[in-house]
Design a protein that fits this description.
Layout (H helix, E strand, L loop, with lengths): L6 H10 L4 H25 L3 H86 L4 H55 L1
Helix pairs in contact: 1-2, 3-4
Length: 194
């Protein structure tokens, strides 16, 4: 062991301050025993460089194993997300088809109603011309009825357009919500594993 002080100089110092040579040597010897005991205690708690490198290698191998497990888990989660995304796409296609079917039905119903209204309007117009010749004073009432019918047709057409737009917006909202949900889940898994 290396001592970091001069024992002979300590013996001399003690002798100069009134101790005998034998007393000085005994004091220095006791100090050395105490220091050696303390150093032994310190060395028991210390780790050698070889032990530290072995522990570091073990930790690195554990980290490598964890990384491999994370990569495998990430791939399986990614495939699960991909299959979930495919399911959502299929559901979206089904919903889109249903909405398109509903739109087609609404359009057909509206065309039928529109044609019926047009035929009614034509009948009213022809009847109005007949009454115009017969009754000049009822001309104003028939014009009002025709105007109301036109407004009703315009209102129904505008309502249908509004309904179609709202269906489009609902589809877009659902699609956007689904995409953002998928992205949020993907980012959540990505953040969770990183």
């Amino acid at each position: 062991r290396k001592l970091f002080f001069d024992t002979h100089a300590l013996v001399r110092l003690l002798e100069e301050n009134g101790f005998t040579t034998q007393q000085s040597e005994v004091i220095v010897s006791a100090l050395m025993k105490i220091m050696n005991a303390n150093l032994d205690m310190i060395y028991k708690d210390m780790v050698t460089k070889v032990q530290q490198e072995i522990a570091l290698q073990q930790v690195m191998s554990h980290i490598g194993g964890v990384k491999k497990d994370m990569i495998i888990l990430e791939k399986s989660e990614f495939s699960a997300l991909r299959s979930e995304n495919e399911k959502i796409k299929l559901e979206l296609q089904q919903i889109k088809k249903q909405v398109m079917d509903e739109i087609t039905k609404v359009r057909a119903d509206n065309k039928l109603n529109l044609n019926l209204e047009k035929s009614r309007v034509k009948e009213l117009v022809s009847f109005a011309y007949f009454l115009l010749e017969a009754y000049k004073d009822r001309h104003a009432q028939q014009d009002r009825a025709l105007t109301q019918t036109d407004r009703k047709i315009d209102t129904e057409v505008a309502d249908l357009k509004t309904m179609l737009e709202s269906h489009k917006l609902d589809n877009i909202k659902y699609l956007a919500g689904s995409v953002f949900t998928c992205l949020t889940v993907a980012l959540g898994f990505y953040r969770l594993w990183m």
